[in-house]
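FW: tagging you since you asked about this chain on Friday. Here's the raw sequence from the shared folder, copied in full. Didn't touch anything.
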Amino acid sequence: MAFPKGFMIGAATAAHQVEGNNIHSDYWAQEQMPHSSFSEKSGDACDHYNRYEEDIRLLADAGLNAYRFSVEWARIEPEEGRFDEKEIGHYRDVIRCCKAHDVEPIVTLLHFTSPVWLIRKGGWEAETTIGYFRRYAAYVTEKLGSELRYICTINEANMGLQIATLSKRYKLMAEQAAKHAAAAKNAEGKVQVGMNFEKMMENMKYAAMENAAVFGTPQPQIFVGSRTPEGDALVFRAHQAAKEAIKEICPDIKVGITLSMHDIQAAAGGEAFAEAAWDEEFRHYLPYIQDDDFLGVQNYTRTEYGPQGQMPCPEGAELTQMEYEFYPEALEHVIRKVHEDFKGDLIVTENGIAVSDDSRRVEFIRRAMAGVENCLQDGIPVKGYCYWSLMDNFEWQKGFSMTFGLISVDRATQERTSKESLAFLGRYAQ
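HL: got it, structure written out here
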């Protein structure tokens, strides 16, 4: 089938991963620490801050018609209450560049990174963060809202609970690491973000002192950290507050949130585990999001549960650089599962694969898009698909070694080279 008129086919990035020199953010501060859990520093990243026109042109020339990117809170409000007109102007230029190339801009307000000052004030476990985030959302909407049709408030708002669960499991595995090194390593492939649990455990005692010096606390409540149930609810209340602020200023903007979701499957005897995992990952958020204009679906792989709980990847399965199972069919399964409970529009805001062999990326996209087509044929209101990521970039704690991109970036020269997968995805939009 042809995709319906107006269907968005694009690619996604996050500011910190591509822009470079995000010096006022919590991640930048953590990267500079002597005992950082980051394998390398972001530095200039892909210099997208200065090269966005070239990158958007490459996207558009391949036929893509949407670009999901984040605006950086730490640039826009580098100090509490001081908003930087130059920086908001930069993002206005990015939006207008998209429109000049007939590309739909989909803006994310918070993609993992926060201003250092926010973390010093308690971060993502502090009640005051709701008000700060609402004020920031209002400012961005006042300045840019007339240029936008879609805003994602918070990227993977459920990530904190996923990390809390994985951290507990990793600690158990680490205790047996001498005997089961491979099993401990496998844990990193169970969360859809670049985490370095092994290095984090090694550095814990040093990190506490260094965090205290930078953030005023040995355990800063950054967004991508283990979340308490109270903090989990706080994130979604911040989303609701931001949505209210956006709608007051620009009622016609479609507002949603994005969630990290695995295709949760139950083997015989694992049904209760699978049900509990889906409740934690998605269903318990419904009261906070059921009136949203859309939901951003973010999926990379599946997770299987058996009688003892979560199972490792199947024997002999093809694994990606992130230790995920190569399983593009997961996307269709997740879209269908989400649609059972959430009746609003769905946008695939992230789906992709880190591999060195681009032919496997092409195959992943082909099978993932076939799943999207199946959902559309059954009347599920999917409005767009954004591949992760537009370019090879800084995969958080794992650095630049994970190649998700449709475009490669030479780290020495910043030269861009489009991969066959970019043209392949673009053909769906034509």
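FW: Residues 53 and 93 are 9 Å apart (CA to CA).
HL: agreed, and The longest strand covers residues 104-110.
FW: great, closing this out.
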